[in-house]
Write a structure and sequence with these properties.
Elements: E1 2-11, H1 19-29, H2 31-39, E2 44-49, E3 59-66, E4 73-74, E5 79-85, H3 92-105, E6 115-120, E7 126-132
Antiparallel strand pairs: 1-3, 1-4, 2-3, 2-6, 5-7, 6-7
Length: about 130
């Protein structure tokens, strides 16, 4: 799957007091584009990339839509570890990221740190994909 960027913010999971507001604003400021993509049956993604080093450092987050051409991200480049998210639990995404970080600390996964993404399918399913070696 390929994704094209709609909008981007720069943040840090641990030292940015505005992280939640930045992520919310990505979605709010792009509501029209998101709804258009959904009407077309396209997948939306939050793509995490341009990591300074690892999950504890600064990174960029882009709200993206599925694209067949002019893609900024191509998922065919990597192997992926999939983490299913409960779409009915508002805390499920942060809980899942904590599980990913714990898996990394325990050496259960070895992350590439090029890009990772949350996939939001038109049917409501959410999956986090982490690029691994």
């Amino acid at each position: 799957m390929k994704f094209t960027i709609m909008d981007t913010k720069r943040t840090n999971n641990f030292n940015d007091p505005d992280i939640k507001q930045k992520i919310r604003s990505l979605w709010k400021e792009n509501t029209s584009s998101i709804n258009d993509a959904k009407r077309q049956g396209l997948t939306i993604a939050s793509v995490y990339y341009d990591y300074e080093s690892n999950y504890k450092s600064d990174y960029s987050i882009s709200l993206c839509k599925e694209s067949n051409s002019n893609a900024d991200f191509d998922t065919a480049k990597y192997h992926w570890k999939e983490y299913k998210v409960n779409p009915n639990d508002k805390t499920s995404i942060p809980k899942t990221w904590n599980k990913i970080w714990n898996d990394e600390k325990k050496h259960l996964i070895k992350r590439v740190y090029d890009f990772d993404f949350e996939q939001y399918k038109p049917d409501g399913k959410i999956t986090i994909f982490v690029a691994i070696y």
